[in-house]
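Hello again,

I reread your note about wanting to compare the complex against the isolated chains. To keep things tidy I'm splitting this into two emails, and this first one only covers the full assembly. Below are the input lines as submitted, including protein chains and any nucleic acid or small-molecule components. They are followed by the predicted structure of everything together. The single-chain runs will come separately.
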Amino acid sequence: MAENVNQNANAVAQHLRAWNPKAVEQVIEFHGETTIVVPHTLLRAAAQECRDALKFDLLSDATCVDRFPVEPRFELQYHLTSIPLKQKIRLRTRLGGDNPNVDSLVPVWPGAGWLEREIFDLMGVHFNDHPDLRRILMPDDWKGHPLRRDYPVEGFRDIPATYLPGLKK
Amino acid sequence: MTTTIASHSVETATGATKTMVLNMGPQHPSTHGVLRVVLELDGETVIKAVPDLGYLHTGIEKSCEDKTYSQAITLTDRMDYLNPLGNNLVYCLAVEKLLGLEIPKRAQYIRVMMAELQRVSSHLVWLGTHAIDLGAMSVFLYCFREREEILKIFERFAGQRMMTSYIRIGGVALEPPAGWREVIGRFLNMMPSRIDEYETLLTENRIWMARTKNVGVIDVKDAVAYSMTGPTLRAAGLAYDNRKVFPYSSYDEFEFDVPTRTDSDCFGRYMIRVAEMRESLKIIKQAMEKITDSGPIRAEAAGIIPPQREKMKTEMEALIYHFKIFTEGFSPAPGEAYVTIESPRGELGCFIASDGSPKPLRCHFRSPSYINLQALPKIVEGQIISDVVACIGTIDIVLGEVDR
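Full-complex prediction:
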């Protein structure tokens, strides 16, 4: 079972390499899950190729990991599922901390809309060509992006400045 | 929160008219919590719907980053409060995947049984509240009567009715209580006739049919494009169920059907959920037969799973491990894991990234309510305003999970 999954996943990587030699930066196998790291400039095109040619029709999830203080700090994770082929794959792309932005996947999957709004709201990653990029969970006038690693769990508001030297409001 | 919707003039069949903006929620009873939908209406027809969320945002994902892996289980209960055991399960499966733990079969079957009881109870709450939204008062009382029996079962197993935290990393928290087979057996005997009872009240009820048939239709292509899963997708005709497609916790050893329909309207979703309750009863029955009277309920993994109480009193290592697990926690190897299960509302996913420390670097939940709700404007636009209530109801959202 596990071997089958790996073969199929490698087939995905091979297909993407054949489609565009620059599309696959790295293939990571971990606990039976395959991650394909794509350059952020090719993300939308690679996703489109996965959907159309490889039948990954369902965007299961999109999320972001902040590896602060490592650069590039943001790792976007797109979990794709193929309902007809019963496969899963993860597309990953890395973004630097200075003005992070990437092409939105809404033209490929309309369902990416709110997932990307959530990442924008909580992580501060900007999605180009997103039709409605507003905060979704936090209030509109909120300052900062709470899921970043350099944002304290308790928030900034109720902590006396003496506890947080250098992090005054 | 500001929304970018304002009334304006539109061309309609009867000429230019001015539209009205109506604010529904966040304290509207049929939004099942604190969902706010801003509706733009032309007469009674919805032209535009903009959902507005975040009233229940509690930052659970952020809090998880500040807790050890075992401490965060109690937080997961509080996301989808109609499906706490499912949330525990997906979180524990993700952590176990990171750790590479093998779970004893007996614990897996207990997990399956509890998850299916939870599914029945969640569908009962859905059916009752949805019926009351559409004006059928008595169904609500009957559904909550049966749900009470399930909550009593949970109380016997875990000591808690709702926030059970019964499923733990490596297995389950406690041995099943004395006499559990009789209690669940009685429930299984009673339940099929009770489901028939709900169906006599609703399925061929003319008011029910008028309110739900051909209301809120979404075709299967759009449903997949909007990442919809669960009963909503199955009512559109696609038999996508994580229990069958990506089996977890030994679901591949159980025999059950995945009901599908092709009408994809509110009535279809209702029929799917009723059929799912019956399938869940089948699974619970098989699980009861598979669960042996004795055997391990937790995996053996020194330093990760708390040792048994007797060993702690007699063995030095066990005492040290116990102390270390509860003070500093355990550290999975760096890496990521993504696990999906079938919650009553659809595909519930948990993504955990570990950096090799005792606390997760990132813990993200793919909540089915949040993603299914995204298609609400697509479903309700063009419908009349009273159908919005039916549509929100059959998407089956739990705001605790939407906002997390």
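For quick reference: Residues 2-19 of chain A form the longest helix (18 residues).

B.
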